[in-house]
Design brief:
The complex is a heterodimer of chains A (169) and B (430). With 169 residues, chain A is an alpha/beta fold. Helices cover 30% and strands 18% of the residues of chain A. Chain A contains 4 helices and 5 strands, in the order βαβαββαβα. Chain A has a 5-stranded mixed β-sheet, covered by helices on one side. In chain A, helix 1 packs across helix 4. The two termini of chain A are 17 Å apart. The relative contact order of chain B is 0.22. The chains are: A alpha/beta (169), B alpha+beta (430).
Chain lengths: 169, 430
């Protein structure tokens, strides 16, 4: 069984995909590398990952036609490093202070709101994250965060599958 | 009794990164303005040491997700200089073409999404989109075209993979580029609409006699090459940068302030490019500027939003010119053989000149690197603008003054992720 209905087709052309993961973060900023590391593992597992990098308004084009996205990010929420978070924000707002590791011109919360204002946003958003401890340029990832990645990747795949099933109904 | 006012804003919205700013007013007089940038850990410079010279473009592209081409083009130019390689005209044209895509994308993001809300009284692009969906849709379509140029030439939109020292891994076919023509023709007109729209904003009455610094190259508006010139008479090769520009440490901010010898602070970016190269704009871009009421020199930093829109028109027009003249090169890249030497590269990032120096050995291993991004060069000028703007606006209420300060900083589209990677914003009025 495929995790997604059509996991190997490109975003452009072919039948539109209905779910995808959006992984945020910088590979050079300690635990902020959670997003890129998870993205690579998700791609190897056949999942569709949207390349967001540092400029989330690109998502408005990339997630055009998607029913649901799963957002993956390192989080500073005051929990123990390595603690996992899951927030099903449905069609509500994303918490704007979700991601303090790196504040960009327009964060993904803003991109989502902008997309909604323009009628160009997925109907459902789930956020999966892991509490990070270090976000300095050139820092190594915290061992507790690295240790949590298997579970995080499994959770993302579960949510993608569930979202696909839900949206396929 | 001493009266003090204090404004604190913890985060500076709508700049690339995090910013910190402090304004202190005591007894009705401006006491201090600080635009703080935390120490840019010279992480990338350290990371480059010991790497192959061919890796510099891909590594430095990671400094910024908004302007990766600026870093790739400057580092590649430096390495090509080390190897004594000059790109043939068509490869040079492709460099310029992909850079046009970055200008369009970066300028439109800033003009429409980040800066325009300041002039129209919106909190941000979301509120703007609710009222003016048409404008935001045009901006997003322009941005998408910028992405598309990056994708067709660079292999993908973000952190292009097709860019290399000596040229490209693969060069696009004529028909791949021609396919972009209809959308670029639309973009050139949409850019003119952007110019008209921004020209109609109310601009704070503020001007300064800046020392403008930009590249200049005969016969073209500067993007990917040129000599470094200034409004104070400087005219040097990029190799001579360090003889004229210095970085000094500023205790309170941990950051390095750039200074031009004998002049002091200076300004890089759209206003500088425009003032020093107005004669090199294409006719359609000149027309757009004239229609917007811009003279050949603009000294009001708030009008930089209009100049960015003019440069967007230029970038679309220039992309069309390049595509019309394009002939697919036989070879996608020049062979680059390393030798023990230093190389310098400087290109016009959307925010201003982005200067690189590398020293490599005979094996092609990078021994050291120095990267001076545009925002660090503008930092001192931004702080001086804040002094000027705040001094003339002390009658404003705290909230309005804080907003005016943010707007002033956004005049520079400061890419703090490039300059410093981390910056908190804080406005304080005592």
């Amino acid at each position: 069984m495929h995790l997604l209905r059509d996991p190997f087709s490109p975003l452009r052309g072919g039948a539109p995909l209905k779910t995808a993961a959006v992984c945020l973060g910088s590979p050079f900023r300690g635990d902020d590398a959670v997003g890129p590391v998870v993205a690579e593992r998700l791609r190897r597992a056949g999942a569709v990952v949207l390349d967001c990098a540092d400029e989330p308004t690109r998502l408005l084009d990339l997630w055009d036609g998607l029913d649901a996205v799963v957002v993956v990010d390192a989080i500073r929420g005051g929990a123990t490093p390595g603690a996992l978070y899951r927030m099903d924000v449905g069609d509500g707002p994303l918490p704007r202070d979700l991601r303090l590791a790196s504040t960009h011109a327009m964060g993904i919360a803003d991109a989502l709101e902008l997309g909604r204002a323009l009628g160009r946003a997925p109907r459902r958003v789930v956020v999966l994250g892991v509490e990070g401890a270090t976000f300095g340029i050139g820092d190594e990832m915290t061992p507790a965060v690295t240790a949590a990645l298997d579970e995080l990747v499994a959770s993302v795949l579960r949510d993608l599958e569930e979202a696909t099933c839900t949206s396929a109904r | 009794m001493s009266e003090t006012r204090e404004i604190r804003t913890d985060y500076l919205a709508r700049v690339e990164g995090e910013g910190a700013m402090l304004v202190r007013v005591r007894d009705g007089a401006l006491e201090e303005v600080q635009f703080k940038i935390f120490e840019p850990p010279r992480f990338f410079e350290a990371l480059l040491r010991g790497r192959r010279f061919t890796e510099a473009p891909d590594i430095t592209a990671r400094i910024c997700g908004i302007c990766p081409i600026a870093y790739m083009a400057s580092s590649a130019a430096a390495m090509e200089q080390v190897c004594g390689v000059e790109l043939p005209p068509q490869l040079q044209a492709l460099r310029r073409l992909i850079y046009c895509g970055e200008w369009i994308e970066s300028h439109v993001l800033h003009v429409a999404m980040l800066h325009a809300p300041d002039f129209l009284g919106y909190d941000g692009a979301i509120e703007l989109a609710r009222d003016r969906r048409d404008l935001v849709e045009v901006a997003l379509r322009l941005k998408k075209l910028g992405n598309e140029l990056m994708r067709v030439i660079g292999g993908r939109e973000v952190h292009p993979v097709n860019f290399r020292v000596g040229g490209f891994y693969r060069v696009p076919t004529v028909s791949e580029l021609r396919a972009l023509v209809p959308e670029l023709e639309w973009a050139r007109e949409a850019g003119r609409e952007l110019v008209r729209w921004t020209a109609g904003f109310d601009f704070p009455d503020y001007e300064r006699d800046y020392a403008f610094v930009s590249l200049r190259h005969p016969g073209e508006y500067p993007i990917e090459r040129g000599r470094i010139v200034s409004s104070t008479g400087l005219d040097i090769s990029v190799d001579e940068y360090e003889e004229h520009f210095t970085e000094s440490h500023v205790e309170r901010s941990n950051a390095l302030h750039s200074s031009l010898a004998g002049v002091g602070s200076y300004l890089v970016g759209p206003l500088a490019r425009y003032a020093l190269n107005h004669d090199e704009l294409s006719d359609v871009a000149k027309e757009a500027a004239a229609e917007a009421g811009l003279g050949p020199v603009v000294r009001n930093p708030f009008r930089s939003i209009v100049v960015r829109a003019v440069e967007t028109v230029y970038a679309a027009d220039e992309a069309l010119r390049i595509i019309a003249a394009y002939e697919r090169p036989d070879e996608p890249a020049m062979e680059c053989v390393p030798r023990a030497a230093s190389g310098h590269g400087c290109t016009e990032a959307p925010r201003g000149i982005c200067w690189h120096r590398y020293r490599i050995d005979d094996e092609g291993t990078i021994l050291d690197a120095k990267i001076v991004p545009p925002t660090s060069q503008n930092q001192k000028t931004i702080e001086e603008d804040l002094v000027g703007v705040v001094s003339g606006s002390l009658d404003l209420a705290d909230e309005e003054l804080a907003h005016r300060c943010e707007q002033t900083i956004r005049n520079y589209d400061p890419c703090i992720s490039c300059a410093t990677h981390f910056l908190r914003f804080e406005v304080e009025r005592l």
